Each structure stands twice: as structure tokens, then as C-alpha cells.
Amino acid sequence: MDVERLWMILDKERNTASLQELPERFCEDVRDYISRLEAEKAEADDTRRSFVEDEIRNARMKVEDIMRRRIGKIIKLASSGMDTPPRGMLPQEEEIFQAVKRQVEAGKAKIFASIFGGSQSAKPRKRDEQPIDEGNEHVLVRVLDNIPAFMGTDGRVYKVGREDVIMLPRTNAEILCNRGVAMRFEAYRKRGGAL
Question: Which CATH architecture has domain 124-188?
């Protein structure tokens, strides 16, 4: 690794919308490169030391710019609903992708729960509709219509379609039942992992 190679990587990252595939040992190579420069600086005379310090500073700035651009792309990909990380990510970047994805999905679930859950008490219940027991964590529902995938309040992603019968977290079940896209069967409490 050297400053010219870092410049090429940065230039490509700037000019492509997709995430480029970095060398497998990118982090190690950059660390070794900067360590070599630091060792050279320690042994250099005053004139040479100034040049080496500039190269170290330049290398660090390029690495920071590369990573800032890559993280921006990773956040965009993770928040777009992509299920699997794209090729070319470093292991540390995959962790960022998964963490952002989890946070975005959890945030969306909370927003939808506050939007749809907030109007539940205002909507009158049909005479033959049984209230869902507030004490139960999960309830069994039959889905009456195709609905988009959603994240439950338990953190799981649910992909359900018309006529599916599924156990859902109580809050999500209430939302779907009150919207008329699901019908409650029976409520269960989780005990020792069994529903």
C-alpha cells in the first residue's frame, strides 16, 4: 500500500455509486504502510522528516475520506431494505450494515406502532370481535389480505400473505386486526420458548 494506491481507491469510490470491492487485507495493508512511515520518520533527518509527516497526514486524510464515503453508501444500502450485505464489504463494514439495518427496522416498527396503535382505542370494536388479552405476548391470527413485510415489536421480520395463520406479537396483531387485514384466533403466552 502507498499513497498513490490510496488515491486510486478514493478516486474510484468518489466516482462510483456502488460500493467498490477493497483488497481483502485493506486495513492491515494501510496499518503496515503507516507504521513503515512512522518508523522512517523516527530515523529521518529534519528535512526528510517533514516530507514523511506530510505523507502520513496525506495517507490518513485519504483513508478517512474513503471510509466516510463508504459508510455513507453502507447506511444508504442498509436503510433501503436490502436483506444481505453487498459484495466487497470489509468485516467491520458488514457489522455497520447489520447494525444500521437493525436500528432502521426497529425505528420503523416503533413509528408504525405509534401511528396505527394510537388510533386503536378510537376505532369502535365490532360486536362479535373479541378483545385481544393485554397480558399475552403473542397471539394467533389469520391474515385476510396480502400485506408488505414488516418488523414486529419482537424484532423479527414477518412476511405474510392472505390466508396465512401466524403467531404475532400482541401489538402487531392488534394493529393488523384493527386495520381489518387480520382476524384474531386465540391468544397465547410464551412459556419457556413454547408458544
Answer: 3-Layer(aba) Sandwich (3.40)
